[in-house]
Amino acid sequence: MRVRLAIGDFSRMTHLSVKALRHYHELGLLVPAEVDASSGYRWYEPGQVRIAHVIRRLRDLGMPLEQIREVLTAPGVEARNRLLGAHTERMETELAAAQAVVAGLRSLLDDPAPAVEVTHRRVEPQLAFAITERVRAEDLDAWWEAAFGELDAALSNADTVATGPRAALYSPDFFELGEGEVVAHRPVAAPAGTGDRVRLAEIPAAELAIAIHHGGFGDIDQTYGLLGTHVGQREIGMPGPIREVYVVSPFDTADEAGLLTEVCWPVFQTRAR
Known about the structure:
single chain; alpha+beta; 3-stranded antiparallel beta sheet
């Protein structure tokens, strides 16, 4: 005898809401065994309960619906385990990032504000290979990695050499509006041909107050805060882009603790030319 389960009963059996079940039906992820042609009422079979339990657990793990579809339609155990393993790795990466944020938060709440040494330096105009684009803050990490990868490729094919570390200019809009112009660049010794997005540019001179940030970029805002306080207390700030100079970047080392970034704030001239 065929057993039909009303959608309400199926919902209680699977702990999936009726709304979710209807959505999964629309996506073709969990199609009812029968749909009444006149009323549209959905009926399920007992054999679908286990599938619904799998979907619910994968959703609890934060897996996107399209990836759940891939798991359910995987051609075999090996393919399915490969998909589950990839998602687990992503979760572990996200967990590590979350733990780093929590550690930073505890440090902010429990520890006194660290001291920062601020130096002042004037930089002269620099010829550079550069990529200039308007970038959203949430897209910065991916854009940053791709841009410097392109700059490195252009340099390797050009008749010139880099004369300094990777660096970037961040417009005020980038911080104030969450989207603004960013100029990723590498200073070069002489003019040379460039790539598709890479252009030859002159990075302007500037007088800068500089603080050194050690480690990853997740807490670089603290260095910005300390440097900005130094500049604000002395009322020496000038309009213009913030500069970051990646003395030791992720392209140079896989050890995040070994990263070294100069955060550079534009200021009035603070010493004789």
